[in-house]
Design brief:
Layout lengths: L6 H13 L15 E6 L14 E4 L2 E2 L2 E3 L4 E7 L2 E6 L13 E3 L7 E3 L5 E2 L5 E3 L8 E7 L2 E5 L1
Antiparallel strand pairs: 1-4, 1-12, 2-5, 3-4, 5-6, 6-11, 7-8, 8-9, 9-10, 11-12
């Protein structure tokens, strides 16, 4: 075996890795927007967050603070665990209609009516052309106060 016998396999491996694009590479990332929201879970407007799998939608600008590119969906997993997701769909995020909402009929999943991408209440893709899950934000709870940030 020659001292250069590793060159060809190494070059092929490097080329293969460089050309191994995923479908995620085809779509632009969701633009950055500040998220600094604070809600009181005992408030009447957030009663859905008192039950497991309950969800509410927060606007980009409102009494709760600044909420991302197109707003935020907050989902209660259980009494001590909440998730928060960007409403901007990861499929063609610069399209004006690329907005994720709770399914009006069941409230058991989220969907973008523009491209028909669907996401479960953990933000994972369950259907449609979306190349990645929903963008997730940090959530912390102190008593009845829920804080959502990026």
């Amino acid at each position: 075996m020659s001292r250069y016998s590793w060159v060809l396999p190494a070059a092929c491996a490097a080329f293969a890795l460089a050309s191994c694009g995923s479908k995620n590479d085809d779509q632009p990332a969701i633009p950055y927007a500040p998220v600094n929201l604070s809600i009181n879970l005992t408030s009447q407007e957030y009663t859905r967050l008192r039950f497991d799998n309950g969800a509410v939608t927060l606007p980009v600008k409102g009494p709760a603070g600044s909420g991302g590119v197109k707003g935020v969906i907050v989902v209660r997993q259980n009494a001590n665990s909440y998730l928060a997701f960007e409403r901007n769909c990861p499929y063609r995020p610069y399209d004006a209609c690329a907005t994720v909402s709770l399914d009006r009929n069941s409230s058991l999943f989220m969907r973008d009516s523009c491209c028909n991408s669907q996401f479960n209440l953990q933000g994972q893709i369950t259907g449609g052309p979306a190349p990645r899950p929903l963008k997730q934000y940090s959530v912390s709870q102190q008593g009845s106060q829920l804080n959502i940030t990026n």
